[in-house]
From TrEMBL:
Residues 1-21, 255-275 are annotated as: Disordered. Pfam families: ABC_tran. The keyword Transmembrane helix does not apply. PROSITE patterns: ABC_TRANSPORTER_2. GO terms for biological process: response to zinc ion; zinc ion transport. It comes from the Bacteria. It comes from Oceanicella actignis. Signal peptide: none annotated. One of its GO terms (molecular function) is ATP binding. Keywords: ATP-binding, Cell membrane, Ion transport, Membrane, Nucleotide-binding, Translocase, Transport, Zinc, Zinc transport. Residues 30-244 form the ABC transporter domain. This is Zinc transport system ATP-binding protein. SUPFAM superfamilies: P-loop containing nucleoside triphosphate hydrolases.
Length: 275
């Protein structure tokens, strides 16, 4: 899908980060340039540039209402930008785990029936469940799953598409810290096994910073982006997320009672903070 562009990108927004060499050399799965989205007359995204390359893990961070979900929806084609251009690789196959999936708790939908909606055969469904660590829950009702199991069921559904890009919108929302860490380990394992790229939105700064190849800090526009340790030192990131700011941590959905890792190695000269 393409749409008219509104403005040329002003800076090389996506610094290389630490994505695998193969990713740096491959054509992007998705490339967005100058993307603007207006909703109900209000500009939600402006001049967003980004690229997702094969096998890299890219995380979008930003305060509530900063346009993260809107950006994911634009990137996967669920909404059309008002301006800008989004190019997708012809072989792009997205496994999407949405932020919310409302299920009527009275609906008699088992995990296996839910996965069957993908059209996959029973053996493949069971294999996917086992791969995400809930092989014993095929006969359980979706509504009876714990938060972590539910997210894994959604991930199994995405996995059945054999995607080359997982798109995950706050996949660890509502999980406790061990659950969050385990989910990210699973994501990293899946990336390694399948070679799929991962694009996700997350509020779990601490884990994101260790589990991502690149981080994009969004607040209606791309404030800064690059390797996690570089972004962690960018003034734009610090202004949004911490280091003594009173209001920043209140922007999260969940409470933090720990400090964040801002003291990584000195930044390489690869960062391109904006504005
Ligand atoms: N369908 C819609 N109708 C009206 N406003 C919308 C709609 N979708 C998004 N918005 C508005 O656009 C802005 C960005 O929303 P979006 O959901 O993309 O933010 P977000 O960064 O994902 O937020 P959160 O972290 O709370 O999930 C918000 O102000 C939101 O209210």
């Amino acid at each position: 899908m393409t749409a008219p562009r509104s403005a040329a990108p002003s800076a090389p927004v996506n610094a290389p980060g630490r994505q695998p060499a193969a990713a740096r050399e491959s054509a992007p799965l998705i490339a967005a340039r100058g993307v603007c989205v207006r909703i109900e007359g209000r500009t939600v995204l402006r001049d967003v540039d980004l690229e997702i390359r094969p096998a890299e893990i890219v995380t979008i961070l930003g305060p509530n209402g900063s346009g993260k979900t809107t950006l994911l929806r634009a990137l996967i084609g669920a909404l059309t930008p008002d301006a800008g251009e989004i190019r997708r690789s012809p072989d792009l196959c997205v496994g999407h785990v949405p932020q919310r999936l409302s299920l009527d708790r009275t609906m008699p939908l088992t995990v296996d029936r839910f996965l069957a909606l993908s059209g996959a055969r029973r053996a493949a469904r069971q294999q996917a469940l086992e791969r995400v660590g809930i092989g014993g829950r095929a006969g359980a009702m979706m509504a009876a799953l714990s938060g972590g199991q539910f997210q894994r069921a959604l991930l199994a559904h995405a996995l059945l598409r054999r995607p080359n890009l997982f798109v995950l919108d706050e996949p660890t929302q509502g999980l406790d810290q061990p659950g969050v860490a385990a989910f990210y380990r699973l994501i990293e394992d899946l990336r390694r096994e399948t070679g799929a790229a991962v694009l996700m939105v997350s509020h779990d700064l601490h884990v994101v910073m260790s589990a991502s190849d690149r981080v994009i800090c969004l607040n209606g526009h791309v404030c800064c982006s690059g390797a996690p340790h570089v972004v962690a030192r960018a003034p734009e990131y610090r202004a949004l997320f911490g280091l003594g700011t009173q209001g920043a941590l209140a922007l999260y959905r969940h409470e933090h009672d720990h400090s964040h890792a801002h003291d990584g190695p000195a930044p390489a000269r690869e960062e391109a903070p904006r504005e």
